[in-house]
Amino acid sequence: MAMRAGEVSSVELTDEAIARIERDDTAINAICVRTFDRARAAARRADRARAWGEDRPLLGIPVTVKESYDIAGLPTTWGMPSQRDHVAAEDAVQVSRLEAAGAVLLGKTNVPLMLRDIQSFNEIYGTTSNPWDHGRTAGGSSGGSAAALAAGFGALSIGSDLAGSLRTPAHFCGIYAHKPTLGLAPTRGMVAPPAPALPIDLDLAVVGPMARTAGDLTLLLDVMAGPDPLTHGVAYEVALPPSRHERLADFRVLIVEDHPLIPTGSAVRAGVHRVADALGDEGARVERRSRLLPDPADAATLYMLLMLSNAAASLPLDVYERLRTDAAALSAEDRSLDAARLRGMVLGHRDWVEANHRRELHRHGWRQLFTEFDVVVCPITPTPAFPHDHHGGLEDRRIDIDGVGYPYFDQLVWAGVATMPGLPATAIPAGRSPEGLPVGVQLIGPMFEDRTPLRLAELLERKIGGFRAP
């Protein structure tokens, strides 16, 4: 690293990042809360500490933080106008870990309302645009972080992921992101206001790192991983196993490019092929089918049930009762994802327990699959970044896949492949679309073997290239 070698100082890196934000962020709108004075003071402290011989994992590195994380004294709104004036009283556990590791916090990055969109816009902070094409979305819900990294507004960022919220923005903006194994990184202080920052074990949702290189993902994950000191941390420490392999030739990889419930667009398919060909060229074992892969249609339905039961838990009673009436009117033969989402919003406890048992069966299936394979490569969404679309409700929007429209939320099935069973997944750049837009793929690994897809990401970065600035 240039800073360790004394070739550049933290003050210089921080000033450069701030200059880029002041020059370019009017058009991109990635940084919604700026902390420049704080950052410059932290950079000066970092340079003094390094001069005294101190070295910490992120000492002096400029970073950004997703708006949804609490930072003491700064607003945390989740894009909700009603929480415009909410100010956090204490740092989220991950913010504390960043600062303990020596990071320099430049500011907070934009999100969609309640983090519930594949785009990042809200009434308080406006719309974040893709640095590659300002007419297109940067993704959501960690879209501000992905856009900031692509635009050079810092070297690292932290986000969160329930429905691809780390992976989709990385795919759309041409950067790297890692969705950790469920429960690996504590989420305390990443909570919608005005709820208290409790050490809750969330279902499906995780927090994780975003970066411009695969190696930096690993660096930041090592800072973020480990149990919350208020709960599991009383008794346990994290000890992730090493990557299964260190050479591309030794990896056993399953390629999954098609989903039974939604087509894969041609640009994304080409990205998957690019990765598959690179692996094959290096002598890796590459397969395109396996009887061990858990049923993707059942997995998608189960994912929608579990995700929407969580999302709808705080709905007002009158809204909930209307949804119950609508769900009761569904035909028993309606197995569409729209129907699964509606049923999920009114899922009773008995049915949730049954769904959770089905999830455990899927997890067991993945364990069997990972005895024969090390990583699964598949899309993140069916298309590259799409034009801004803020019209109507989420349920009314459509996603265009090679000229054909599909329900907007159906594209989440690819995110659910890893999210529903709680598996780690690394998003990597995999080339460009014919229009010049970034295309990414995800590398899904075995539970708590996060270092395996992360290592494969590093090796592929050397083989096919990685992040390239817009």
Automatic annotation (TrEMBL):
GO cellular component, one term: endomembrane system
Every Amidase domain range: 12-452
Pfam families: Amidase (PF01425)
GO MF annotations in UniProt: glutaminyl-tRNA synthase (glutamine-hydrolyzing) activity; transferase activity
Keywords from the named record: Ligase, Transferase
Superkingdom of the organism of origin: Bacteria
Alphabetized InterPro entries for the sequence: Amidase_CS (IPR020556), Amidase_dom (IPR023631), AS_sf (IPR036928), FAAH2 (IPR052739)
Keyword Ligase listed: yes
PROSITE patterns referenced in this protein's UniProt entry, alphabetically: AMIDASES (PS00571)
Keyword Transcription regulation: no
Enzyme Commission code: 6.3.5.7
PANTHER family recorded: FATTY-ACID AMIDE HYDROLASE (PTHR43372), FATTY-ACID AMIDE HYDROLASE 2 (PTHR43372:SF4)
NCBIfam families for this protein: PRK06170.1 (NF004816)
Record-given protein name: Glutamyl-tRNA(Gln) amidotransferase subunit A
